[in-house]
Structure formats: structure tokens, C-alpha cells
Specification:
The protein is of the alpha/beta class. It is built from 26 helices and 39 strands. The radius of gyration is 29 Å and the shape is globular.
């Protein structure tokens, strides 16, 4: 085994005499030695800290060294420390304000480098922008730019609020970069600009620190430790690292920063597995990413693993954990834009309490690393089966890793820039010589709102879109003037291709993937987007397409009634809620009004509401036409429901995506928890209750967090002022229980509509709210990581499918596969099935599904009348993240037409005849 003394000696050459000649902080050395639970958990890169008379240390500003037991810092404290550094060293620290968080906290990026580099930041920014677009320069010019530029190495922490160590460590790293006078630090300072995002999820940091001090600080054994708070940020919790369409405002701001500054490397710091995993871009790898990336990633990860193993630090490994298939992780914005994503997972305690950790039970049998405690080629010095782990251990590992990565980058700054330029040039070349060459979004599609959704997401990421002023005529097809063209011979053509193509290129279905296998934007949004393999498309003249602005139309004032045509827009739901004080009727079946076709689902609005209706129709991109009289139209009252959305306390994330969509689209609802459901009398307050996909199982939704250990309050107090948001409770443990189920049953029997989505649809079946429907698990080898599959609409006349006629081919439409629970009904209840999965390989439209025959003809939407009400069960999840925009309307239709969901109910089957002898 490598000894600590040998590791220290091996590193002495690196640190050299300049560092030893500096005055060091003896209190720091003594403190961190005591806080580090084993000598081998320390490295010679971080066992010391210079004392400075000009730069304030973390202890001088915050009162403690970083890694102090039982100490976490709130966001305001963290930002104030960087402000203190900038005030002390304005020539070496630059703070860039990039926006505000969801709750109004400032988002900043901190730049640290030598005075010479900080003085040239604007020049570097411009140069990196020129390297990012090789169409504007030649190879010789690129070489000159590279010689005159320092790469930006961006590091960020705190995306996941329970991963508390990175925001702490980054403060010490910043101080060390500014004060340590060693060859290593000089090389980093002279050859790199280090930029930091102190906390990616600023709102969640404060909420989590509150929770830690209130509920977790005394927990010292991971076997019985409670979980975290119900919320980090306002909506999406851990999935903020799966936010492929950038719903989160902080993510959008970081994307804007990236496109302005083009850091070639973005390094995201996470916490989970022991003791430190460094990302290598393992298989399955997305083949649309540049091959150079898959050489760069192990170059860094293997160097870090080798160096830290040399220091005697156990449990540093690579490979075997996170793959490179899905492009939706936040820092993937770098790889998606021809840079390099870097990522660590460091062992963390979800707080600053020193804790007994059990590694051996955390054995995984899949490709996610196997048994962590066993040696393998990618894990040469495994972690221990049991360990006393501290925040300082976490800091030592993470900071040693980051300094090692910065060491490597500072040795090869030109190589990093050359690779960045070459990947950008390769992207342009690939779009020029390899089919497909473009994607066309044909003009004339009925719903402009969905087109805007797609183009906004593409343009937000710097993807160029052109508009054809004339009709496009290609070898195999023609497209009307006004069609949008995304040519792939552009720097971000690879990203455009990844987002728009079918995911039919998964390299090996035997491999699991860390997230979804499919995300095709056209299928997800039900937008027509055509892949073009005719190279002539590159010569089609286009003008740059400005950001889409919806512009609806309405007939002149004075009509008795206006019909707002339902052409599939999600904004129909927004309009209805904005007209909540207007009496609106909804058309039951398609009809003709003169030469105008009025689709089913269209709204009939009285002419007296014209002044209110007109600006809304125009803003939302809808079309309203005048009708002389509407008395002969078959329509029903569009009475808005009093809606509740139920959330457990222990699994709010998937509910958060639904809440986000509702809030974006101005849909009114009350968020309720176990406390309100247990009170009963739900029908007095609500017409519709939505039980969304959440937790891991139906049992989780009913019983939620087990009633063990101490109460876990989530309330706002003078001391814990960031708690109690988006709901409040004296104890998050326990769920609605059987008492809540009985209240839901009564709600339905008294005329309420219960809507369930995804895994929540198993609740009515498994807990007896519906009869004669069964659930089962798929075969053992079944694997369906979020593919997009075909669904067959069996009741197209149902209000659920208003607006979808143009989205269906032979009554089929694309939906995202949501949950592996399979539903079965007896033949006499088949009339309750509104949609089913055809199944089989042919039913998979994008991504993949192993054992796809298992889902053949399984129910996708079930409509069950019950008492005076009904239960509508989506086996799909019609609001999955901010992605399957094309499915949102099905849920909104169910809500807006809650009184009409029985119009397609099949009459009950006649009872079998009684044998004559038994009469």
C-alpha cells in the first residue's frame, strides 16, 4: 500500500520550496487534521493553507475553517465571502451577475486568475467565441487565437441541495488559488481562468441548511437517518439535472453565460458514491457527440484517479457509473456545445455531521459500478466497507480532485483550446458531408404555440434557425414558403441533431442508461419536424429566424358569439382560466358554421366578453371567429373545476413538474397534502383531485414516509425562515393512509373526478377504489428507460382527445412510456379503455424497449365511472418534466371537461341469462 509519507514526498516536487517558504495557518493544519477521520483521507495538496495579510480566509469571514463539523453556510454567507475576496483582490477576482433565481436570489459567476488574465477577460471571451464558430476563421487564424488565449475552466456546486459539500469546498479553493505561492498554483493562475458558480440552486441551499440545523445535525448513523426537506427549489428538486428544455430560470441564465463566455470545460460537483467517482463518459455513448470528447474524458479521469491513488487516498474510481447517452444533464451544455463536461460524485453525508457510513450494503449489481468495495481496473484502491466519514473528508477528496484536474489543464491549455476549436470545426464539417443535413419544420402547422416551444428551446441553446422565404423543393418532397430550416452545418449542428432526431441509434440494448433513452422533440411536442437527407437543403436560401412571437386573430367586434377554434394548442387551457369569469361553452363535435369548420373542443364565448377575449386570443396565438348564433351548436358548459393536486411530503419532485406546467399556463389549483385529505369532506371544496405520478410505488403514495424516529417539522419560524414554503406541516412523516383513501372514495362517490397519472394510477387498483381491474409487473428482462411509444386512441370522440385529431395517424399518437405497471380489464369493461399501447418493437417510435411484446394491447387510459363520479387513470404521465408538451392537453382536457367524461361510457353489458332450472 502507498504510504502517506511516500505520497507527501512524491508531491514535494510539485509544491516545491515556494509553498513551504510561505507562512502557513497552523490552526488550519491542526483543525483539519482533527476533522479528517483517517490519515489516508488527506492529501498533500490540501493539508495546509497559507496565511495572508491581504486576502480574508473563510475563517476570518465566516468564523470557521471549511469542513468544520456541524457547520453549513447559508447562501447569503457564501456570496458575502466571494464579495470579500473581490474587494480584497479586485485585480484577481471578477464577479459577474448573471440573473436571479426563481425566488429572487442573485446568481453569480466568480472569475479567478492572475492580474494579467483578469485584465484580458474580455479579449479571452471574444477569442473563445471566435474558436466556437470556426466558420469565421481559418486554421492559421485559430492557431494565433489559441496562442493568445487562456481557457476558462468552469466549476460549479450545489445543484442538488442535499449535496452540501461542494459550496463549502469552493470557498476554500478560491482562497487557496488567490494565496498559495506554489508552482502548481502559479501554473493554474497563469494558464487558466477558473470560474465558479458558488451554488447552482441558490433557493434550495437555504431551505436545506434550515432543514439540516433543525432535523439532521444530531444524526450520526446512516442506517436510520431521516431524509431531506420536502423542497429544495420551488419545483423540480433533483431533476434540475434532467431539465433538458431548461425550464428552470437559473439553468437558462447559466446557458446564457455559457454562450457568452464559452468555457471549454464545465466541471460539476456532486455527492453520492464512495469515496470519489470521476466521470469518464462510459458507454452507452451518444454517437452524435464528437469522438474527441471520449478521448478527453478518460484523459482527465484517469489522471485524477492515478494521482489521488498515489497519495494513498482509497476509493477514487472512474467508469462504471454515469454514461454519456442522454444530453439533458445541466453541465452537458458544455459537451453539447463542443466543450467538455466534467463531473465528480464525492461521498457526502447530506450535511456536516461526522457519521458512521456503511458502504458494503450499497452494492449495485448493474453497470453502475458493481460492488464498490471490490477492486477492478477502474477502481484500483477500493473504499472501505464501513467508515466514519466527515465533511472535511469530503472537502479533502473533492478539492484534491479539482486541484489535480486544474493541474492537468494548466499543463495543456493549448491542447484544450485546440480540441475545443477542432470539435467545433468537426461539427460544421459533419453537417456538410454526412446526412442528415437539416431538419425542416414545415409552415402551416395548426398550433403555433408548439412550434414556438420547439424553436425557443433550440434558440436558447444557440442553435441557428432559418426561415425560407420561398417554397422549398427537394428531391423527395416540397415544403411551403415560411418553413423553418435547421441546417446542421453550423457549430451546434450536432446538438440540433441530437435533440431533433429519432433515438434509434442506441448502441447496445443490453446496457442500462442513467436517464431516458429518448427525447425526440418533434414526437414529444407532437410537432411535425422532418429529417432531410438531400444535401441540396444546405443551399436553400433562408433568413435568420427571430424569436417566435405568437399572434392570434379574432373577427371584428359585434358578433353574438365567438368560436375560439381548437387546433390543438395547450394555450386553450390557459385561455379558459384567464376567462374564468366568463361563461364559456365547449363544442362537443365538429360542426360547420358557413364555410368555417368548428372543431370539437372549441370554445364558444359570448360577444359581450369581446374586450376581454381579444387580447388573450392574440397573445396566446389562437384564432377566434364570429358566429351569428350558437344555439344550434352541440356544446356543453365549460364549468371550471375547483381543482386540487395531491402531493406526498416525501416525494414532491414529480408533482413539481406538474405544478410548474400549471403555473406556466395559469391553471388554478390548490396543492394539498395528507393533512387535508385526512380531514375528509373533499367534495365540499373540490370537483377534481389530481393524484400525480410520485414516489416509487402506490404504497409510497398512500403511506409516504414511515412513522419511525422523531417528528420532522417543516414550518416557517423566526429561526427557520426558509422552511414552510409551498405547504407546511408539523411532521412530514406518514401519508394519507387508509383514512385518506376512504376520503378519496367518498369524494368520487359524491360526484368528484379523481385523475391519476403514471405510477399513481396503481393506487385505485391496488387499494380497491376500482373493481375488476388488475395490475401486473412486466417480465424480468423488460426494460423501458423512457422510450416514446405509439398509443392507439380507442375513443377519439372522448373530450380527452379534443385538439388531437391532427396529431393522430390511424388513431395513433406518440406518448412517453411512463411506468412499468401493466393494467388488465375483463372484456365486459373494455369500453372503459380510451387508449391502449399496441406494443411490440413496431410500437417503439424512439428509444428502445426490451420485451416490448409484454405491453401489447395494454390499457393506457382507463375511464371508470364510480358512484356519482369517476376515476380517470393515465398509465402514461401526460406531464413528464417540461418535455412531453404534446401530451399536456390530454390532462387539461380532462380537467376542463370533467363533467363530460362519461359521454363515451359504454352501456353495461346485459347480465347472462339465468338457467331455466334456477329461475
Amino acid at each position: 500500500m502507498i504510504t502517506k509519507s511516500f505520497a507527501a514526498a512524491a508531491t514535494a516536487v510539485l509544491l516545491c520550496s515556494a509553498a513551504s517558504a510561505q507562512q502557513m495557518d497552523g490552526d488550519f493544519a491542526s483543525s483539519v487534521k482533527n476533522w479528517t477521520t483517517k490519515p489516508e483521507f488527506m492529501s498533500p495538496l490540501v493539508d495546509h493553507l497559507p496565511a495572508s495579510s491581504t486576502i480574508p480566509s473563510p475563517k476570518q469571514v465566516l468564523g470557521q475553517h471549511i469542513g468544520a463539523p456541524n457547520t453549513l453556510h447559508y447562501y447569503e454567507q457564501i456570496i458575502s465571502y466571494y464579495r470579500a475576496l473581490a474587494a480584497a483582490a479586485p485585480d484577481r477576482v471578477k464577479i459577474i451577475e448573471i440573473g436571479k433565481s426563481e425566488e429572487g436570489r442573485e446568481n453569480v459567476v466568480v472569475m479567478i486568475s492572475s492580474p494579467a488574465n483578469i485584465a484580458k477577460l474580455d479579449t479571452y471571451r471574444q477569442n473563445l467565441g471566435r474558436l466556437a464558430d470556426p466558420r469565421q476563421i481559418n486554421a492559421a487564424e485559430a492557431a494565433d487565437i489559441i496562442a493568445a488565449t487562456k481557457p476558462i475552466y468552469h466549476i460549479s456546486g450545489g445543484l442538488h441541495s442535499a449535496e452540501t459539500g461542494p459550496p463549502e469546498m469552493l470557498m476554500e479553493l478560491a482562497y487557496r488559488l488567490l494565496t498559495e505561492d506554489s508552482p502548481l498554483m502559479k501554473s493554474i493562475s497563469e494558464n487558466l481562468v477558473v470560474s465558479l458558480t458558488p451554488v447552482l440552486e441558490a433557493d434550495g441551499r437555504d431551505r436545506y441548511v434550515d432543514w439540516y440545523y433543525r432535523n439532521l445535525i444530531d444524526e450520526r448513523d446512516d442506517m436510520n437517518k431521516p431524509g431531506g426537506p420536502p423542497y429544495w427549489g420551488k419545483y423540480i428538486y433533483h431533476d434540475n439535472n434532467r431539465d433538458i428544455n431548461f425550464s428552470d430560470v437559473s439553468a437558462r441564465e447559466l446557458m446564457k453565460f455559457y454562450l457568452d463566455w464559452h468555457p471549454p470545460i464545465m466541471h460539476e460537483l456532486h455527492e453520492s458514491v464512495p469515496f470519489m467517482y470521476t466521470y469518464s463518459g462510459q458507454a452507452p455513448q451518444n454517437p452524435d457527440l464528437d469522438p474527441i470528447l471520449f478521448g478527453e474524458l478518460p484523459w482527465f479521469s484517469n489522471f485524477e484517479m492515478a494521482q489521488m491513488t498515489k497519495y494513498g487516498m482509497p476509493g477514487v474510481w472512474t467508469h462504471g457509473f454515469v454514461d454519456a447517452w442522454t444530453p439533458g444533464y445541466l453541465a452537458f451544455m458544455s459537451s453539447n456545445h463542443n466543450g467538455m463536461l466534467r463531473m465528480y460524485e464525492t461521498f457526502g453525508n447530506a450535511g456536516a455531521t461526522t457519521m458512521l457510513r456503511h458502504v458494503a450494503p450499497e452494492v449495485q449489481s448493474s453497470v453502475r459500478g458493481g460492488d464498490y468495495t471490490k477492486r477492478d481496473w477502474y477502481r484500483p484502491l477500493p473504499p472501505y466497507k464501513e467508515v466514519m466519514w466527515s465533511m472535511r473528508n469530503n472537502t479533502n477528496y473533492m478539492e484534491t480532485g479539482v486541484l489535480t484536474a486544474l493541474d492537468l489543464a494548466s499543463r495543456f491549455p493549448n491542447v484544450i483550446l485546440e480540441n475545443f476549436y477542432k470539435k467545433s470545426a468537426n461539427a460544421v464539417e459533419a453537417g456538410t458531408k454526412d446526412a442528415p443535413y437539416a431538419y425542416i419544420i414545415p409552415a402551416g402547422q395548426a398550433d403555433e404555440a408548439r412550434l414556438k416551444f420547439v424553436t425557443d428551446v433550440l434558440q436558447m441553446q444557440g442553435i441557428e434557425i432559418g426561415r425560407a422565404g420561398q417554397a422549398i423543393r427537394l428531391k423527395d418532397a416540397s415544403y411551403p414558403a415560411g418553413s423553418l430550416v435547421v441546417k446542421l452545418n453550423q457549430p451546434y449542428g450536432r446538438l440540433a441533431k441530437m435533440l431533433l432526431r429519432l433515438q434509434d441509434n442506441y448502441p447496445d440494448e443490453k446496457l442500462m442508461t442513467y436517464d431516458d433513452a429518448a427525447w425526440t422533440m418533434g414526437l414529444m411536442t407532437h410537432t411535425k419536424i422532418v429529417e432531410i437527407t438531400d444535401k441540396a437543403v444546405l443551399d436553400v436560401p433562408v433568413t435568420p429566424y427571430a424569436k417566435a412571437v405568437l399572434a392570434g386573430s379574432i373577427s371584428a367586434p359585434g358578433a353574438a358569439t365567438y368560436a375560439v377554434l381548437d387546433e390543438g394548442s395547450v394555450n386553450m387551457a390557459t385561455l379558459r382560466y384567464r376567462l374564468k369569469d366568463v361563461s364559456v361553452r365547449i363544442v362537443d363535435a365538429p360542426m360547420k358554421a358557413g364555410s368555417q369548420t368548428i372543431p370539437a373542443g372549441s370554445f364558444l364565448v359570448p360577444g359581450s366578453a369581446y374586450a376581454t377575449l381579444k387580447p388573450q386570443v392574440e397573445e396566446l396565438g389562437l384564432k377566434a371567429v364570429s358566429l351569428g348564433r350558437s344555439g344550434s351548436v352541440t356544446a356543453h358548459d365549460g364549468t371550471l373545476p375547483r381543482t386540487a393536486v395531491f402531493s406526498t411530503w416525501g416525494a414532491t419532485e414529480k408533482v413539481g413538474w406538474l405544478r410548474y406546467a400549471f403555473d406556466q399556463q395559469d391553471i388554478d389549483y390548490d396543492l394539498i397534502y395528507k393533512e387535508r385529505v385526512r380531514q375528509g369532506n373533499l367534495r365540499a371544496d373540490f370537483d377534481v383531485i389530481i393524484l400525480p405520478n410520485q414516489g416509487k410505488s402506490a404504497r409510497d403514495i398512500v403511506f409516504d414516509l414511515p412513522m419511525k424516529g422523531k417528528p420532522l417539522p417543516y414550518t416557517k419560524t423566526e429561526k427557520y425562515r426558509f422552511s414552510g414554503d409551498f405547504g407546511s406541516t408539523e411532521d412530514i412523516r406518514g401519508g394519507m393512509g387508509l383514512e385518506g383513501l376512504m376520503a378519496l372514495r367518498k369524494f368520487v362517490e359524491e360526484g368528484g373526478t379523481l385523475i391519476t397519472t403514471g405510477n399513481a394510477s396503481a393506487v385505485p387498483v391496488q387499494f380497491g377504489l376500482v373493481d375488476d381491474i388488475t395490475t401486473s409487473a412486466p417480465p424480468k428482462d423488460f426494460y423501458a428507460p423512457g422510450p416514446i411509444v405509439s398509443a392507439k386512441v380507442l375513443k377519439p370522440e372522448s373530450p380527452i382527445f379534443y385538439g388531437y385529431q391532427g396529431d393522430m395517424t390511424d388513431a395513433k399518437m406518440p406518448v412517453r412510456w411512463a411506468d412499468n405497471t401493466l393494467y388488465a380489464l375483463p372484456d365486459r369493461l373494455k369500453g372503459q379503455v380510451l387508449m391502449q399501447f399496441p406494443g411490440g418493437k413496431a410500437g417503439v417510435m424512439s428509444g428502445f424497449m426490451r420485451e416490448a411484446e409484454a405491453v401489447k394491447d395494454r390499457a393506457a387510459i382507463i375511464n371508470v365511472p364510480q358512484g356519482n363520479g369517476r376515476i380517470l387513470m393515465f398509465a402514461t404521465n401526460p406531464i413528464w418534466r417540461w418535455q412531453n408538451f404534446g401530451e399536456f392537453r390530454m390532462l387539461y382536457n380532462a380537467m376542463l371537461n370533467w363533467k363530460q367524461l362519461g359521454v363515451t361510457d359504454a352501456p353495461p353489458s346485459a347480465p347472462p341469462p339465468v338457467p331455466e332450472g334456477q329461475r
